[in-house]
Amino acid sequence: MNTVIGKQFWVNKTQILDTQWKQREDRDLQEDEVRLRIKDFAFTANNVTYAVMGEALQYWSFFPAGEAYGLIPVWGFAEVTESNNEAVNIGELVYGYFPMADALIVKPANISEGSFIDAMPHREALPVVYNQYIRCAKDPLYKESTEALQMLLRPLFTTSFLLQDFFAEHEYFSSEQVVMSSASSKTSIGTAFAFHQQRRKNGSGPNIIGLSSAANVDFVRSLNLYDEVYSYDDLDKISRKSSFLIDFAGNAAVKSSIHKHLSDQLQYSCIVGASHWDQTMAAAEKLVGPEPQLFFAPSQAQKRMQEWGPKGFGERLAVMWQGFLQNVGDWMTVEYVDGEEAIGTSYQAMVDGSVKPEQGLIYRVNGQSA
């Protein structure tokens, strides 16, 4: 049964520059279902990673479309326009995981004052963190004035928060420094902020090394979050001392060069993203040093929610999130992209890497929001 309805942006699962707009017929709501009009959503390099890893990590499974084409998940806001569920009211604003489309039908379950889960059968086996919808009226992180930053950064910063927590839990693998590729990406910036804040709090922590393209080095340095910043052409300037790598880029040549340069000083190698999606490494290539491990944020989130409880998890995240929002206000410019043609053009720019790191893109399939 179709849950994604109306206007949709389809992406070829194996050739992600191949896209098309589709129109799917609406349908009547079934028992307990709710119709959501998707208001706005963010589109970042993280969403490109969703597409690149769509099969491996089941991102295409959240909002099924065709066999060859899929719907990239995005984070945004939606309004309840019709409800067959007495616990969810028309007019409510919710935040969560949506398709690149203008409408979605969900079946709320586990309904609380602050959230609900989409209980559609095809989502039952998928990570619960992606199936939760936050009811904005009771969300302590929600402010109308910061909606754009929430869409752009809340899911990315949650990953940043969890990365810092994971490495702190493992005592940074006894390393003196952390090396992060794609240092201009929003997830990398958030992670650098999280390491920076934790180091300030504890009085100790790893040195923070950022790697970026030559074009973005000045921007990355201007953030004052990385202790050292180098272009990919200057990897030999990285100190050869005990290190761990967080790879946000997925660039085959860069990752191989870092592994070779640090060699036996590299204690741990972590894969988070694939912003350089067209330069990912062949699975058969053997790297010097430790085998890269995929960091799957929902697993660390579920672990901490069990240990801290959802409330404790939310409180810890909220404290660091508020600090990050103040930092972001100094450098990010939010841009709104309205309508099919403009979204298609902007999508191509994000995928080919020509969007500036200080740009934050908000898409509006339904046109300008009220």
Automatic annotation (TrEMBL):
Organism superkingdom: Bacteria
InterPro entries referenced in this protein's UniProt entry, alphabetically: DUF2855 (IPR021276)
Protein's recorded name: DUF2855 family protein
